[in-house]
Write a structure and sequence with these properties.
About 30% of the residues lie in helices and about 20% in strands. The protein has about 725 residues and is α/β, with parallel strands linked by helices.
Length: about 725
């Protein structure tokens, strides 16, 4: 791997020494550095275990708790590619990003598990699985048929299992027993099995009522034990478990009920059979589904995972929620529903009565897709925070440019499957000369999940100097995530293309496994797109909309085509999924009731305290649609676009009307059209005749005076 310590040192402002076998012959040099309290970055992930052990065994070394070692891969990500000799700027960028501090701590979500495991499936399969984990877990079996062993080693329950809800340490399992055989009383003597003339009783010790002809020979055979009773009424049961292992095959069924805060019903029933307890893409913590049973390729890993899930566990609370700017609902009217619809863990539900959404942190898996599609930033990703992600982007791209790199392409990928594909591509570049490897201008950036970043991050990266931003999807993402990413990429591309930047700047790249390496290799060799002339210096803000506006402002200033188009008052048409746009008001039907103003969560719509006006700030509009769904006259339509002139930041009047003056004191108190519409609707009503109808033409004060001064008005004392 070609390394240029002088060029790397200049880019990183450090004096670097080149070592060829730091993990072998040059290990003393590493041990010497371990005694220093300075930040320590090792540009090798392959030998991370060895370096960690060397540090722990070095006398006088700084404790890893005080000064951890940061590992970064510069070999497979570029050092082994065909363009390795030109990869110095990228290596410098990766090393600079590795020096950044870890993300600030966030609140955590705690799970407590005592190891109570429920295994669901055919009796023989559940017993085999139980035997592998029973030494550390308290196992209960839920039989869905099959044939069990003669010896009853584990508690067995059976019946209809319509739902399982919950998460690690808190699964709520409800079932109903309807079978005549009580499994608690059954001794498995097999007398009933032998006595049944229809062979309706299997070795799961349950009666197939479809085959039973009511001979009741089984009742007589079980007379001494009394485990069989055809008169027993169905009974409902409920029990708590910490873990669930589901061995049932997948069954296509109706979609989950997204309204339930714990993730909807636990199973879909098709043709009398229940499918897995959870059919959503992201399963709750503590739930494992093996549709192929113990023959499933992931079976052994799953069983090992379950064995370790005893005790207390923590995970970051990946999101923050600000109800004040949430566009989900106002006055029990639903507007934006993007986060509820996209969540693959069914962790988000609607609470329309409280005008908010509810996120269950125990079900949240931290994918961040909800924060990506949220138009206002009411849901934001917390680990890492937006500001921390922005610092990493700026560090990567600024160091790359400082080291002489040009036309940087940012490749966002997941830190598991995505990283593995990139490493495989780098290794293939050494073994197969037809493989180019990761190009010198492509900078890989691992994310917790590829769906956790969206329009604000992509536009910021472009403004910071990235020629292109690519997202590598590997099949681990939920299908709706890929659709949402593609929609937002279309918006981002429409913005930069409309501002005159040529080329394809934003793209999804799909690669599932090693068979797709050649396609991935070809995709990464795309020609550079036109970037900005001047790199941005703004900091990513905590508020998503603020970051989007900063990025757009920079691009507007940098674009050569912008001044003339802005002067002409042009606007860029954007796709329907855009979170930028304007609204149009039908002045013929709008009565200026201003219900849309109170519904707007982003203060894009405003009234005027001096006169009847509906005013609008286009920059604030998030295209949530609450104004349109709230308007009683259906007078509002949404138009996604980006206005290029400064008018998008200024108040402008969408509609105004002549004020209606009180017939008693002449004070304006409403709009002429609004009062006329009200009078027309109430003119035929029995309660609004004569003086009562005239009273509607008065302001609030005069209306009260008229009621008490009118001698013909009926009073309670007259009754």
């Amino acid at each position: 791997m070609p390394l240029n310590p002088k060029a790397l040192g200049e880019a990183l402002d450090e004096d670097l020494t080149l070592h060829t076998t730091l993990c072998r012959r040059d290990a003393p040099a590493f041990q010497k550095v371990c005694r220093s309290s300075d930040d320590l970055v090792v540009a090798c992930t392959q030998e991370s275990r060895l370096f960690t052990e060397l540090s722990e065994q070095t006398e006088g070394a700084v404790s890893l708790d005080v000064r951890p070692i940061r590992f970064v891969n510069i070999r497979e990500t570029g050092g082994w590619g065909r363009e390795a000799a030109q990869a110095t700027p990228k290596m410098a960028a990766l090393l600079a990003a590795a020096r950044l501090p870890d993300a600030e701590p966030v609140p955590t979500v705690t799970y407590k598990s005592a190891g109570r495991l429920l295994i669901i499936g055919a009796l023989e399969d559940t017993e085999r699985a139980a035997a592998l984990v029973a030494d550390v877990l308290d196992v209960t079996l839920f039989a869905t048929g099959g044939a069990g062993m003669q010896a009853r080693r584990f508690p067995v329950i059976a019946g209809d299992l319509p739902q399982v809800r919950g998460w690690l340490g808190a699964f709520d399992v409800q079932w109903t027993t309807r079978n005549p055989i009580d499994l608690d009383l059954c001794t498995r003597c097999n007398a009933c099995v032998a006595a049944c003339p229809e062979d309706a009783i299997g070795l799961d010790y349950q009666i197939d009522m479809g085959r039973c002809q009511s001979h009741r020979a089984c009742v007589k055979a079980c007379e001494a034990v009394g485990a069989i009773n055809f008169q027993r009424a169905p009974q409902s049961h409920s029990e708590k478990f910490d873990l669930v292992l589901d061995l049932r095959p997948s069954v296509a069924g109706p979609p989950q009920d997204r309204r339930h805060p714990l993730g909807g019903p636990g199973a879909a029933r098709v043709g009398g059979q229940y499918g897995p307890a959870f059919s959503q893409h992201a399963h709750p913590q503590g739930y494992v589904h093996l549709p192929g049973g113990l023959t499933d390729a992931a079976a052994m890993q799953a069983l090992i995972q379950l064995r370790d899930l005893v005790g207390e566990f923590e995970k970051p609370k990946f999101f923050t929620y600000k109800q004040k700017i949430c566009a989900h609902s106002r006055n029990e009217t639903v507007g934006c529903n993007a986060c509820v619809e996209i969540c693959s863990a069914l962790a988000i539900s609607s609470d329309v009565k409280r005008n908010q959404i509810v996120v269950n942190p125990n079900l949240c898996v931290g994918c961040g897709a909800c924060t990506t599609v949220c138009p206002t930033g009411a849901l934001s990703y917390a680990y890492p925070r937006a500001s921390e992600q922005g610092v990493k982007l700026r560090t990567l791209l600024a160091t790359y440019a400082k080291a002489g790199g040009q036309h940087a392409a940012l490749l966002l990928h997941s830190q598991e499957a995505g990283a593995a594909l990139i490493h495989d591509l780098g290794r293939a570049a050494v073994l197969d000369k037809t493989v180019r490897g990761v190009p010198a201008r492509v900078i890989p950036l691992p994310l917790w999940h590829t769906a956790s970043v969206g329009l604000d991050v992509w536009l910021t990266a472009f403004a910071y100097g990235a020629s292109q931003v690519w997202v590598l999807v590997t099949g681990e993402e939920a299908p709706q995530y890929r659709a949402a990413l593609a929609e937002q990429m279309a918006v981002a591309q429409a913005i930069v293309s409309g501002l005159g930047y040529s080329g394809q700047h934003f793209q999804l790249i799909e690669a599932r496994d090693a068979r797709d390496l050649m396609a991935l290799d070809a995709a990464l060799t795309q020609a550079p797109a036109q970037g900005v002339k001047r790199r941005a210096s703004f900091a990513v803000q905590a508020e998503k909309r603020a970051t989007v506006e900063l990025a757009i402002d920079h691009l507007l200033q940098d674009s050569a085509a912008h001044p003339q188009r802005a002067k002409a008052g042009e606007a860029l048409a954007l796709p329907a999924a855009s979170l930028l746009g304007t609204i149009a008001v039908n002045k013929d039907t709008c009565t200026l009731c201003l219900s849309c103003v109170s519904a707007c969560p982003a203060s894009a719509l405003q009234d005027n305290t001096e006169r009847p006006q509906l005013r609008f700030i286009e920059k604030n509009c998030v295209q949530c649609g609450l104004c349109a769904s709230t308007c009683p006259e259906n007078a509002i339509t949404l138009t996604p676009r980006l206005l290029l002139s400064e008018q998008r930041k200024q108040l402008r009047v969408l509609n105004e009307a002549k004020p209606y003056q009180c017939i008693r004191c002449s004070k304006p108190f409403g709009t002429l059209k609004g009062i006329e519409v009200m009078l027309g609707k109430l003119a035929g009503h029995a309660m609004f005749q004569g003086p009562a109808l005239e009273r509607l033409k008065m302001c609030g004060d005069c209306r009260v005076v008229d009621i008490y001064s009118n001698p013909g008005e009926t009073r309670i004392g007259d009754v």
